[in-house]
Amino acid sequence: MQNRIQKTMAALAETNRKALIPYVVAGDPDLKSTLEIMHAMVDSGADIIELGVPFSDPMAEGPTIALGHERALAAKTSLRKILELVAQFRQSNNETPIVLMGYANPVERFGYESFAESASQAGVDGLLTVDLPPEECEQLNSHLQEKGIETVFLVAPTTTEERIKSIAQRASGYIYYVSLKGVTGAANLDSEGVNARLTEIRNITSLPLCVGFGIKDGVTARSVSEKADGVVVGSVLVDAIGKADSTAGAVKAVSDILSEIRAAIA
Questions:
Q1: What is the pLDDT of residues 112-122, one digit of tens each?
Q2: Phi-psi region of 173 (alpha: psi -120 to 50; beta: other; left: phi over 0)
Q3: In what order do the strands lie in the sheet with 153-155?
Q4: Is the full-model pTM beyond 0.90?
Q5: 4-265 is a CATH 3.30.950.10 domain
Q6: Which of left, alpha, beta for 16 (phi over 0: left; psi -120 to 50: alpha)?
Q7: Where are the domains of the chain?
Q8: Secondary structure letter of residue 134 according to DSSP
Q9: Which pLDDT value is given to residue 153?
Q10: pLDDT for the residue 183
């Protein structure tokens, strides 16, 4: 049985459309605002939503998203509360896939089996754990698979062919290709290099390939969408949320950014 990610990616492929995958930190600036932003993102063309799980040491994040984590933690956001948020979202949207993106510690503290059960009941479709290597995810992966939750992995520009093969064997849903070396929010996107790398990865796996890091507007999104199955947009959205003086302001800013990118990648 296909879960929402598989259904969405298949439907997009049939119509030759690219997935638009926005990332925001859950609970930034608070959970009520996040819920409004989630619905606004769907209205602006989002196909899949990535929710960042705030953590005290977000080592893969640049300054912008790290501040989003800080704001969410200051608002007392927890993994359990995020699952409650997803369940709220599901009350009116049972179609848009939701992927949780974060670090291993909160999931380990929750307990792998308990997390998989609770995430499934809430309506989570995928999990991307930044600091859990594929070789160490077997136990968690087995619990997720039992509940129909996909495991998304990162592939970096420096990842070897052998390691990509290992990742592809364990991954499901889609592979998240990190377009830049360094942390989130880095600059200088090399679209030619990204497209060449995606071609290489397609020789290894048939999973959809979605590109993130460095995508900030319609121009950068279009530059990598030729070879990618989807684009992930994060830092520019988190920055807009952080600068907004109200929930309404954050909703408008996020909606404007995503509407431009949606139009650019078709």
A1: 999 999 999 99
A2: left
A3: 150-151, 126-129, 98-102, 49-52, 19-25, 230-233, 209-212, 175-178, 153-155
A4: yes
A5: no
A6: left
A7: 4-265
A8: G
A9: 95
A10: 47
